[in-house]
Specification:
single chain; alpha+beta; five-stranded antiparallel β-sheet; 28% helix; 30% strand; globular
Length: 101
């Protein structure tokens, strides 16, 4: 089975639909993991919300849904299948999928 990924977005401003990717959920067909994005500092309250949500997501990675504890300011992007032959899915997501978002 091919590896799949979904980006995790933090909704910066719900009124303008402004959002930024903060992580990616990876599923290699057997194991589901999370890859974090190195973010520039946001406002302190947003930094704290992102840190809390990512800790919750990382402790309970699920490809199909975010944990309730992540809160309403986080959403999953569409599922994408990684290209055949990708040796390191985590690196591929950081190098390609997250940069294109």
């Amino acid at each position: 089975m091919s590896a799949r990924t979904r980006l995790v977005y933090f909704i910066i401003d719900p009124y303008s639909d402004s959002r930024t990717p903060v992580a990616a959920i990876l599923n290699d067909g057997t194991v589901t993991t999370m890859v974090r994005v190195r973010l520039p500092p946001l406002v302190p309250s947003a930094d704290a919300a992102v840190a809390r949500a990512l800790a919750d997501i990382e402790s309970h990675p699920d490809f199909d849904a975010l944990p309730i504890g992540a809160g309403p300011y986080f959403l999953l992007g569409d599922s994408r299948t990684l290209p055949a032959g990708v040796v390191d899915p985590g690196r591929w997501v950081l190098d390609y999928a997250l940069r294109a978002a």
